[in-house]
TrEMBL record:
Lineage: Bacteria, Pseudomonadati, Bacteroidota, Flavobacteriia, Flavobacteriales
Protein name listed in UniProt: Small redox-active disulfide protein 2
Protein's UniProt keywords contain Disulfide bond: yes
Keyword Disulfide bond: yes
Disulfide bonds: 12-15
Keywords of this entry: Disulfide bond, Redox-active center
Species this protein is from: Pseudozobellia thermophila
Residue ranges occupied by any Thioredoxin-like fold domain in the UniProt entry: 4-77
Length: 78
């Protein structure tokens, strides 16, 4: 079953790092996932997130305000 991954962030360096980590984990582990970058501040606010970047997996906020390790992202996706 495909996962829906959203990266909430306005394009800051941390947000870009998080996007890179998630893309690497998905491709390196052949995970069936759709990755969507959410940069619209109004949409980010709908998730009640005050610190970006944030990682949302299947509509659940898993990480806020930091860039996780590849291992941590892989654990969240499995």
């Amino acid at each position: 079953m495909s996962k829906t991954i959203k990266i909430l962030g306005t394009g800051c360096p941390k947000c870009q790092s998080l996007t890179g980590v998630v893309k690497d984990v998905v491709s390196e582990n052949n995970i069936d996932a759709t990755i969507e970058k959410v940069e619209d501040i109004m949409e980010i606010m709908r998730y009640n997130v005050m610190t970006t970047p944030a990682l949302v997996i299947d509509d659940v906020i898993t990480i806020k305000g930091r860039v996780p390790s590849k291992e941590e992202v892989l654990a969240l996706l499995n």
